[in-house]
Amino acid sequence: MGTFKAIRIDKAEKGTTAALTQFDEAELMAGDVTVRVEWSTLNYKDGLAVTGKAPVVRRFPMIAGIDFAGTVEQSSHPQWKAGDQVICNGWGMGETHLGAYAEKARVSGDWLVRLPEGMSARDAMAIGTAGYTAMLAVLALEQHGLTPANGPVVVTGAAGGVGSVAIAVLSKLGYHVIASTGRQSEAGYLRDLGAAEVIDRGELTGPAKPLARERWAGGIDSVGSTTLANLLSMTKYRGAIAACGLAAGMDLPSSVAPFILRGVCLLGIDSVMCPIELRKTAWSRLAGDLDSRKLAEITQEIDLSQVIEAGARILAGQVRGRIVVKIV
Ligand code: NDP
User: Fold this and answer.
1) Same domain, 179 and 108
2) Which one of 116, 138, 167, 268 is most buried, counting C-beta atoms within 10 A?
3) Confidence (pLDDT) at 290
4) Ligand 1 pocket: which of 164, 222, 267, 323 to mutate (most atoms within 8 A of CB)
């Protein structure tokens, strides 16, 4: 057994430390599949973990990184054999199970999804948890019965990772997409992705009225707090908002008015423990419903040595679109 490169998080006297270092293979946790990690990605939660800004990491030492794409090296799981190309998102990686910013990962074979036909490992991680969560939100809205004929859809945190993928997918599906952003300088970028309208997030950040003018039939919110409350109060009769994030806060200062007077639904989206069948559906839909040219436009590439600095930038709201991390 040898060592491999990894971003290791340790507990310090005050908070945590993060460093790119060598990790001993003997310290890998239990799992029936060992994967050679080729690509990972940077999500908001990764930013929290590498900067120690929130207690995301609950086991030490930890390898940060909540998702990877790579090739199976060894497997005793019936579904996987050496050479298979796989994706893994969440399941506590980087939180309670050693994570993805590493040349090697050992996980349960039950957590893995096969890389879809025609999708590269790099593209899978350019999508990453943020993009897969955007697709889970789209699927939830569809299951609710939303179609482009019902009216516009709003996407908040539009220039971020979840937001950028959501806009690209929804516009390809034929929706009139309203993108809400705090960065008007990114209006051109958002229109190129497929936004029909770009609004200032200031319109959605004050205290929410119980009910306001009906503006959209559906929405995907990665911001939370008063933004989500305003979204709900502006949702059309029997519309739905899929809530997946908390970039502005975990609170939800809303009232029951949208639910009981307009029949509006609030759909909760969790990517971490999402059942495997729904993951497979999401990844297969991403292979078809996300334009690879648009994915390339929203993606920047970094390597492992740049992850910690980029983690601070994502928390500061300074990252546009998605960051893919080259491991080897
Ligand atoms: P990003 O940082 O890439 O995007 C978040 C965006 O939110 C920013 O780009 C910015 O968009 C907007 N934003 C940031 N701060 C504020 C603020 N104070 N007020 C209003 N808007 C703000 O993160 P991701 O897209 O990776 O993740 C988005 C959220 O979704 C995070 O909270 C993350 O934890 C959550 N998430 C949840 C998952 C789940 O399983 N439920 C999975 C993945 C992510 P703009 O500049 O356009 O205004």
Assistant:
1) no
2) 167
3) 97
4) 222
